[in-house]
């Protein structure tokens, strides 16, 4: 990135914080496949910066809104978003820089506390993104309707647009029967991280759990727990602490597959056919649970 672009970002940081800042060094940080990420230093200050193409500024605006909402819950530490904008063809998001590398067993208890923040409806005041895919958060009074329309239905239709017609056909059968998985379970609209896998949390050097890269909305708390199990899982102490604080209800093991199907479909739509078999197997497993 050019010197001029860093100057624009530094000027915005200075204006936001009220402290003079110049970028004296920048270091690339290995991260996800969607954004470029940097640790920048200068004037005794440190910041974390995400960069993307300028047309993706809304993605950063949504992320900043989500981090702010999670911070308001005062349950788990999140990086504070400072400023965002565009500089010479790039969108940027500047956040608090948090050094990682400690150990903690507090995340499960803290996530249970976050899930105690609730709302009268499912969804959120704005749409956001799951990875780089739009995530629709239109408010609904009913969780089954929300999951049918704005989670599974949205992803299944994206898959159909990419030619996965057999998946779409079976997915539509599943969507029509989603209510069967909630005959004895009525979730509350809890404040969710929304994309809580092992790559989106860490422990700071002072031992504080930190979550980031959210896809915030109000929904069933089980969706957060389910995703923690999807890509490698979290430490056992996380699940023990969560269960001690806020036990999961009967039927979670089946609903977990329903919830993680959303993320596997999103990976199929983002990254291609290597996720097709997994998505088909999950749909088949869920269809086998249905009563006709």
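-> sequence recovered:
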């Amino acid at each position: 990135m050019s010197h001029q672009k860093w100057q624009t970002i530094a000027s915005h940081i200075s204006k936001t914080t009220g402290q003079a800042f110049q970028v004296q060094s920048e270091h690339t940080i290995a991260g996800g496949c969607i954004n470029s990420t940097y640790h920048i230093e200068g004037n005794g200050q440190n910041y974390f910066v995400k960069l993307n193409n300028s047309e993706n500024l809304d993605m950063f605006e949504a992320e900043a809104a989500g981090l702010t909402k999670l911070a308001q819950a005062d349950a788990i530490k999140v990086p504070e978003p400072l400023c965002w904008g565009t500089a010479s063809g790039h969108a940027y998001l500047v956040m608090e820089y948090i050094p990682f590398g400690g150990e903690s067993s507090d995340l499960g208890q803290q996530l249970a506390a976050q899930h105690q923040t609730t709302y009268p409806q499912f969804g959120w005041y704005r749409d956001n993104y799951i990875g780089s895919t739009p995530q629709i958060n239109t408010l609904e009074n009913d969780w089954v309707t929300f999951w049918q329309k704005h989670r599974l239905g949205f992803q299944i239709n994206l898959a159909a647009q990419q030619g996965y017609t057999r998946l779409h056909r079976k997915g539509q059968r599943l969507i029509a029967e989603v209510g069967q998985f909630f005959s004895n379970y009525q979730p509350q609209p809890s404040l969710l991280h929304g994309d809580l896998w092992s790559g989106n949390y860490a422990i700071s050097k002072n031992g504080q759990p930190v979550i980031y890269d959210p896809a915030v909305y109000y929904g069933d708390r089980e969706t957060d727990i389910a995703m923690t199990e999807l890509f490698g899982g979290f430490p056992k102490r996380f699940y023990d602490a969560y269960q001690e604080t806020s036990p999961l209800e009967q039927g979670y093991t089946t609903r977990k597959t329903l919830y993680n199907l959303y993320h596997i479909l999103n990976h199929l739509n983002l990254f291609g056919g290597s996720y097709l078999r997994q998505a088909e197997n999950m749909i088949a497993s869920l269809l086998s649970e249905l009563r006709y």
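DSSP finds nine helices and eleven strands in the chain.
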